[in-house]
What we know:
The protein is mainly beta. It has one domain (2-131, 140-161). The protein is built from one helix and eight strands; from the N terminus they run E-H-E-E-E-E-E-E-E. It has an eight-stranded antiparallel beta barrel.
Amino acid sequence: MSLGVNPLAWMIGFYGMSATVALSRHTALRADGTYVRLRDDFESYEFELGMPIYPLAPFHGPFIEPGVSLRRSRGSAFVNGLEDPPPRYSDRPVSHLRGATFLFGWHWMTDSGVNLAVAAGVALLSKVPSERARGAPGQLQVLRAHSQRLPSARLRLLTRRLVET
C-alpha cells in the first residue's frame, strides 16, 4: 500500500490524499480525494478511482492508469472574473462533472519505501447542471450534458509504502 500527498499543491489551495493498493504483479487500485479552495468564492471536491497498470511491478517504473472521476464545484472564480465581488454562497453556480480519465507516468521507489509518482493525462468529463431549468408548469425541461476534455495531472510526493507487496 502507498499513501500519497502533494505538499507543493497545498501552497496554492489544492488539498488531497491518495491511497494505492497493489492487486497483482502488474496492477494496483488507486483512490484519490481532493479539496480545492482557490478563493473565497470558489471551491471544488473531486474523487478519482483508477487502476494503474505497471509493466515491471507495482510502484516501479512506467505506468498507464485508466480511471473514473467525480467532481463538484461551487463558485464563480472562473465565471465572473477576478474583479467581481463574490456573490452570496447560495447564489454561486454549482457544477457536477463525471467521466473517464487516462494517465501515464512514472513511479520511483527507494529502498526505504519513500516514493515519487508523476503522471499526466486527459479526462473526458460530462458536465451536468445540478439544478433543473426553471420553466412554466407542465413545460418539458431538458438537461443537456456537455462533454469537454480537461487536462489532468497528478504529482504525488513524499509518499510512504506501508505494506510491502
